[in-house]
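step: validate -> pass
step: tokenize input -> pass
step: predict -> running
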Amino acid sequence: MRSISGRLTLAVAIVGLAVFVVVGSLLQWALRRELERMRERDLDGRADVVAHFLDEVEAGDDLSELRHHLDDVLIGDGQLRIWLIADSGAVVYGGKIRPTTQPADTTAAVGKLTIWREDGVALTGRSFRVKAHGPVPDGVALIGVDTRGDQRLLSAYLGALVFVCGLGVAALSALGAWVARRELRPVRELSMEAAAISPRALSLRLSSQGVSAELEDLVDSFNRALDRVQSAYEHLEAFSADVAHELRTPLTTMISATEVELARERTVAELRDTLSGNLESLHQLTTMVNDMLFLARADQGGTAQTLAVTDLRLVAGQVVEYFDAVLDERLQRVDIVGEAQAPVNAALVRRALANLLSNASRYTPAGRAISIQLSTVSPASTDERVAITVVNPGEGIDPAVLPRLFERFFRADTSRQGSAEHHGLGLAIVRAIARMHGGDAFATSADGITKVGFTLRSRETSLLPGDGGIEPHGDP
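step: predict -> pass
step: emit ->
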């Protein structure tokens, strides 16, 4: 049964049935015990009366008087029978045929026994020895009572109990169903509120007013989940719009150039120039798609693979050497400050550092120096980290946009020189690589100095395995 209300009603019905069965059984047992005690007292009393009459017998004429007294005892009580049986087997009183008893030996002292009448009806009885005196011989007195009336009373009582218990269980089940539906009404209301939430109304939240304490945590958790869903949905919408925008420009350029070339006859050289331009645009698209795939895998929880303790100063030197031609053209130099080692994927770290150095070189005035700083963060902490920071002079970044600097396709200022030549995924890749190594990215800008970098865990055992490892597509 999937319904909570149904399960609660069933549980109440089962508990009620169990309670009624236990109580009814106890009442039935108590009534049976009381009837048995009353029967025992009645038999004991009748046995005392018969014994008293027997003691009064002295002469032969008294035997008829005894029978008369015993008949008086039986008057008005059709359930009682009395027998006086001599040891010789003769029935002195009670009939002509000696009744069958269990146990069969009735010569013992006073005791309980079962007596069968002539018609086969079993009686609950008592027996006691009779000593010879006067006309009464040695023998035994049997006193039995028919208990079928008590059995009929118990059966009727049991039927009444079953009927009452059935009504009680039905009433309790109905009451339980009503209470369950009433108490679960807030759940149905919350369900209706949740059903009203759609992509066009992601700002709606479940109301916590009037909600019971047991549901408050659920409502709060659900609303927090909706906050995350809304944020992810808005991010996805923005990402889709950015992707469409970034793809539209090179595709429009290729389509326009191709249409122009097809408008009239062209020489081989002109067609070659057009195809070269298209090829360059296709290379840009390929780079962007590869970067997007890399970020998508990183978002799925992938971690860096093939980790090895690496001298980060050596990695920084390799990146600087790769940019030698660009730096010489712009009359810039790069200083590497500090020493650090960490378990990293060297190719991924080179890629992140190359993105940072490319951005720094693009926005650093000619003739100025760029610094790559290697340092240890919180050296006394068990969560020790290594920081790689690229510091460059030049035009600063608005503090208001610093929190968004590492978002995909985000550009701090599209009017800045060279911003149109890049698709805005470089810093997002830096942050992804940092998180794949258990760290994060950071950026500050003040007084004409911009610092952009990322941190790495300095201990390999601190890295948590993700859903899958990510290897770099290539070195810078």
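step: describe -> The two ends are 61 Å apart (CA to CA).
step: cleanup -> pass
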